[in-house]
Design goal:
alpha+beta, globular
Amino acid sequence: MSEGYAIELYFDPALENQVLKAWNVFARRQISTKLINTESRPHLTLFSTSSSFLDSSSKLEPIVKSFASRQEPLPLSFSSIGSFSGDNNALFLSPTPSLSLLQLQAQLIDAVRKEGFEIGEEYRLDSWVPFCPVAVDVPRARMAEAFSVLRDLKMPVSGYAMDVGLVEFSPVREVFSFALGNNLES
């Protein structure tokens, strides 16, 4: 049984490959393999919900499809690295803040809220922190090494957000995705 669903923003192939390089370095050094092992895809999470909302995927598909059709590919530039405090010792790339990214997420949240989904605090307008995970469950004793790996990335890492999709977790399984700017499934 799934734990929930997330709506994720996906990148153009060049940007996605830059993030995957970091994932692969972490895996080769045996620092973190969870993102690769769960077959995740480089992304920014725009919204997430628990599976208590029965059949969330069928309720979210028309919302996401309509939303994607009204958007255009969005320039992104990951210019800093960071970590959240907590149990999962996650490291991430942080995008340079832009009004267009914040507006995109706010429009999605508004559409999801109108369909009756509860919006958690971390996805509300004044609380959302956009990030692209690059390592999770990093052993505490290897956090400094993990930060060193990220410092070796040539920053900024830039490209475009091209698709928006729904994943079910855990395990991670893409349910659908749509290209920004058209109604066709990608």
